[in-house]
Design a protein that fits this description.
Blueprint (H helix, E strand, L loop, with lengths): L25 E3 L10 E3 L3 E3 L3 E2 L3 E3 L3 E5 L21 E5 L3 E6 L1 E4 L3 E4 L6 E5 L5 E7 L8 E4 L16 H16 L12 E3 L9 E2 L6 E7 H6 L7 E2 L9 E6 L2 E5 L15 E4 L3 E6 L5 E2 L1 E11 L4 E3 L2 E8 L3 E3 L7 E3 L7 E9 L2 E11 L2 E9 L6 E7 L4 E10 L7 E10 L4 E3 L3 E4 L8 E3 L7 E4 L7 E5 L5 E6 L4 E2 L8 E8 L5 E9 L1
Parallel strand pairs: 2-5, 2-25, 3-6, 3-25, 4-26, 5-7, 6-8, 7-10, 9-13, 14-16, 15-17, 16-18, 18-20, 19-21, 20-23, 21-23, 22-24, 23-25, 24-26
Antiparallel strand pairs: 1-27, 11-12, 12-13, 28-29, 29-32, 30-31, 30-33, 33-34, 33-35, 36-37, 37-40, 38-39, 38-41, 41-42
């Protein structure tokens, strides 16, 4: 008798693996390395026109050639979890390049810029008054420019963003390849995946199999031929446990004129994935909306059509020239018959009297040997401090204490390097800690907790807290009263992330806590 995993119990929208047993599929999120960004690229993003409803992260340069507003109504999930106003609305790993255009606004979240060469950052106007952050080619109010719709210290905009784009896209390419070669005859995968075909004739109807990943394979020619067949009608809509995966074989250069899917709503895009494995150049043309996330990690994507994209765009590069990209991140899990590598390594740091406490959490840890703790004073050059042995396969939380840092009162940066039995290296995010504020840091106990968490020193009543689960979903939030978070006894036993914010919505504490 086969053991079948119930995908309804898996947490959608995160890279979460369940323990692997014989003849049991492992559910995973194929877009988890994109960290919830609306647009996620390894190379450049070119802004010409249109807008994105969610945040953008590019591993290359941001090129201004017009006006494109970013993160209009959603700050995404990175790094503090879904719904947090302090997330990063725009991450540029490289520099900003200025060609022409007006002002490209970042409405939600904050900005991180990896290379300020050729740019000037302004957080004050010509009279010395605080102003919304501007990034220009030289002078205040110069166009084209990037402008945040709220105030941000310009030095903070240049702090590390913690995203390793190289590692992320290595994973995304492997995932895209894996999806393109689904072996539906495999006794494990076949339990959770069903292959569908689109009926002939005009206005064809598609009936999805509930509780399965509905997998449709098309060539590029077959995909574009659907445009002339009226409306493609889905008799039942996709959802978290009944997603659709379109595997598109269109190597080289391909221009897509999307079909009419009149039976779908914008929100249905959260459960549809378009996998363009092996494509190197993808043009999103036409006028019909695209429902779903585009996974094209090797493609230079040109959004030239006036249509809307109801999903993420994950690509080598993106030219945003027309239309809108709506924030519908892919929120279903797909099965894998074999264990996939370490898929999550999240680090948090807080100060205590005489030492800095590092805590990191792993997801789907398998065949790991050890974790090396590394520290830096500039966020670029790291040196090894200590090595901690792996606790074995599974999901684990680790901690290590760094004695009072000798480098002085500046800012410290930490990261964790994981090494598996084959010598493969995985890095955590980079966590920063301002040494000058050590006396102001908040500490907590008990951890693990049962029904309450104490915060010391006593926390002002206008501080707020947010507890999120491993997927970034908020499970409890509110005001901190008398330095204590109470009424936690109903939470299930698990590891959570605690975010504490001051009256200005600035993060004061971010660390894992365990409910026992």
């Amino acid at each position: 008798m086969r053991t079948k995993i119930n995908l309804r119990r898996a947490v959608a929208a995160t890279l979460l693996f369940l323990p692997c047993t014989s003849l049991q599929a492992q559910p995973f999120s194929p877009v988890a390395p994109a960290r919830g960004f609306n647009v996620f690229t390894s190379d450049s993003v070119i802004l010409v026109a249109g807008d994105t409803h969610g945040p953008i992260a590019t591993g290359g340069n941001l090129k201004l050639k017009g006006k494109t507003d970013v993160a209009i109504n959603n700050s995404g999930t990175y790094p503090y979890g879904a719904g947090n106003a302090n997330n990063f609305g725009l991450v540029v790993n490289g520099r900003v390049q200025y060609t022409n255009g007006n002002v490209s606004y970042v409405n939600q979240g904050y900005i991180r810029l990896g290379d300020a060469t050729g740019s000037a950052l302004f957080d004050k106007d010509g009279n010395g008054a605080n102003t919304n952050l501007q990034i220009t080619s030289g002078l205040f109010n110069t166009e084209p420019r990037v402008q945040l719709q709220k105030m941000q210290d310009k030095t903070v905009a240049l702090e590390v963003h913690g995203i390793n784009f190289g590692t992320a896209f290595d994973s995304l390419k492997r995932i895209s390849h894996y999806i393109s070669t689904y072996n539906l005859s495999d006794p494990v995968t076949a339990q959770d995946v069903v292959a569908l075909t689109i009926p002939a004739g005009m206005n064809p109807h598609i009936t999805l199999t509930p509780g399965k990943v509905n997998y449709i394979t098309l060539t590029g020619t077959e995909l574009n031929n659907l445009t002339s067949r009226g409306s493609i009608i889905f008799d039942n809509k996709p959802n978290a446990t009944t997603p659709i995966v379109f595997n598109i074989t269109a190597p080289g250069s391909f221009s897509w004129d999307p079909f009419n899917a009149g039976s779908l709503d914008e929100s249905d895009g959260a459960f549809i994935l378009w996998n363009f494995y092996g494509n190197s150049s993808l043009q999103l043309a036409g006028g019909n909306s695209i429902y779903g996330t585009i996974l094209a990690p090797e493609s230079d994507v040109n959004k030239s059509g006036a249509n809307n994209n109801n999903g993420q765009i994950i690509a080598k590069s993106l030219r945003m020239a027309y239309g809108e990209v709506h924030y519908m991140r892919f929120s279903s899990l797909l099965p894998s018959p074999t264990p996939l590598p370490l898929s999550g390594l999240q680090l948090a740091v807080q100060s205590n009297t005489g030492y800095n406490l590092l805590q990191w959490q792993t997801l789907n840890e398998r065949d790991m040997v050890s974790f090396s703790i590394e520290r830096s004073t500039d966020g670029k050059t790291f040196r090894n401090l200590n090595t901690v042995n792996s606790l074995g396969n599974g999901d684990h939380t680790y901690s290590w204490q760094d004695p009072a840092a000798p480098e002085g009162s500046g800012q410290l940066f930490y990261r964790v390097k994981g090494i598996d039995r084959g010598g493969k290296i995985s890095y955590s995010n980079v966590a920063a800690l301002r040494q000058s504020n050590l006396s102001e840091q908040v500490r907590l106990y008990p951890n693990p907790f049962t029904s309450y968490i104490n915060l010391i020193p006593g926390t002002p009543a206008d501080y707020t807290y947010r507890l999120t689960d491993i997927s970034g979903r908020t499970v409890k939030a509110g005001k901190v009263g008398a330095g204590q978070i109470t009424n936690l006894e109903a939470l299930p036993t698990a590891t959570y992330w605690l975010m504490l914010e001051d009256a200005n919505n600035q993060p004061v504490l971010f660390c894992p806590v365990i409910k026992q």
